[in-house]
């Protein structure tokens, strides 16, 4: 759902740019409360994983494909504020290096794909985990539903933006019906990917899933009038205490394989937005990307003639650049918290909370 230059007029693009900048600023501050020594490197990995999986377009209808948006996945794994930053990093890398998503439309894309998906998904996810049984399966089920709903929500948000600042005269009602309809189907794919990924992380390190924190408390005993942890009340079962370094290495390896090899077999059909734009005339005033001549434009390496090798190298480069950029951002945010936040400011943070409660 990457919006190219020319779909949305300049005033609306500027307005969404302001919204996106404000949301990123708020997210940088909020992420300080979400990130700790475990989740800071994981957040960079989540950004790289989203980049890799977004290269895997899957067919959803005749002549149409879809791909992961990633807002729900990022929010559930590392927190909503950090999730907005993860997807924003991915969009920035895609726009600058791969000519995917217009540069003048960067605010539109961040607002739509990072903010809307994350806010909608995490709000729904938190509501579901409060009413569902406190089990790992419930977390995975809530992740599925939240991811499913987030995609048509983003499609509707784009339609509203186009109603305000679209550059062609089209029937907004027809565009809304087409956008929401096809993106419900894409949302099913998003939900499957999100649920499988969240479930896989919960299976090996449930304490690393931000959205599952605090669902199950440690067993407490009263000793001499004070509550203490019961002996052997390990918040993370021994079978699920895989080193976070192993989780990180495994996730990076999976991202490299997906982007460097599996992406070659992705669907070549236009994604939901591209198909709707072509069918309804939204793309009449689309503009060439400002970095269309980039050596990595269109996810290929310039002067490499073999399509498989070219796409694979571009994917590997993209994963590497995204994980470095993302990890750098999140370590800097974490460092700001460590250096500048007083102990009283962290009373209710996930770090402190994790000493009295644990994941599912």
Please provide a written account of the structure.
This protein is mainly alpha-helical. It has a single domain, classed as Arp2/3 complex 21 kDa subunit ARPC3, CATH 1.10.1760.20. Helix content is 61%, strand content 5%. The strands form three sheets. Strands 1-2 form a two-stranded antiparallel sheet. A two-stranded antiparallel ribbon has the order 3-6. It has a two-stranded antiparallel sheet with strand order 4-5. A hairpin with a 2-residue loop joins β4 and β5. α2 packs antiparallel against α3, α3 packs parallel to α7 and α4 packs antiparallel against α5.
Q: Into how many domains do the coordinates divide?
A: 1
Number of β-strand runs: 6
Radius of gyration: 21 Å
Enumerate the spans where pLDDT stays under 50 for 5 or more consecutive residues: 342-360
Shape: globular
Q: Provide a count of the helices.
A: 11
Q: What CATH first level would be assigned?
A: Mainly Alpha
Q: Which class do the helix and strand fractions yield?
A: mainly alpha
Question: Could you report the average pLDDT, rounded to the nearest whole number?
Answer: 88
Would you tell me which CATH topology applies? Arp2/3 complex 21 kDa subunit ARPC3
Mind summarizing the main beta sheet?
A: 2 strands, antiparallel
Cα-to-Cα separation, first versus last residue: 33 Å
Q: In order across it, which strands form the biggest sheet?
A: 1-2
């Amino acid at each position: 759902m990457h919006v190219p230059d020319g779909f949305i007029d300049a005033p609306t693009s500027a307005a969404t740019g302001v919204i996106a900048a404000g949301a990123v600023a708020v997210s940088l501050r909020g992420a300080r409360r979400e990130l700790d020594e475990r989740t800071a490197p994981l957040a960079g990995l989540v950004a790289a994983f989203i980049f890799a999986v977004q290269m895997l377009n899957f067919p959803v209808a005749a002549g149409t494909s879809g791909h992961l948006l990633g807002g729900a996945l990022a929010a559930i794994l590392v927190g909503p504020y950090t999730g907005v930053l993860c997807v924003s990093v991915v969009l920035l890398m895609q726009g600058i290096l791969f000519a995917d998503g217009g540069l003048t439309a960067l605010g539109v894309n961040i607002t739509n794909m990072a903010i809307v998906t994350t806010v909608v998904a995490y709000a729904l996810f938190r509501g579901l985990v409060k009413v569902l049984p406190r089990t790992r399966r419930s977390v995975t089920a809530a992740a599925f539903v939240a991811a499913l709903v987030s995609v048509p929500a983003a499609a509707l948000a784009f339609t509203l933006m186009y109603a305000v600042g679209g550059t062609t005269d089209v029937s907004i009602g027809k565009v809304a019906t087409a956008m929401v309809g096809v993106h419900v189907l894409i949302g099913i794919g998003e939900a499957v990917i999100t649920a499988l990924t969240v479930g896989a992380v919960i299976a090996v390190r449930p304490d690393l899933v931000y959205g599952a924190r605090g669902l199950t408390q440690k067993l407490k005993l009263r000793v001499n009038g004070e509550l203490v942890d019961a002996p052997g009340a390990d918040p993370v079962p021994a079978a699920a205490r895989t080193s976070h370094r192993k989780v990180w290495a495994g996730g990076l390896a999976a991202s490299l394989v997906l982007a460097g090899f599996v992406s070659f077999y992705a669907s070549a059909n236009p994604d939901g937005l591209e198909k709707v734009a072509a069918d309804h005339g939204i793309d009449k005033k689309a503009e060439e990307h400002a970095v269309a001549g980039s050596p990595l434009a269109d996810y290929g390496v310039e002067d490499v003639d073999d399509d498989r090798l070219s796409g694979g190298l571009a994917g590997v480069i993209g994963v590497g650049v995204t994980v470095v950029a993302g990890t750098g951002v999140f370590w800097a945010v974490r460092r700001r918290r460590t250096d500048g936040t007083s102990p009283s400011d962290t009373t209710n943070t996930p770090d402190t909370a994790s000493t009295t409660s644990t994941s599912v």
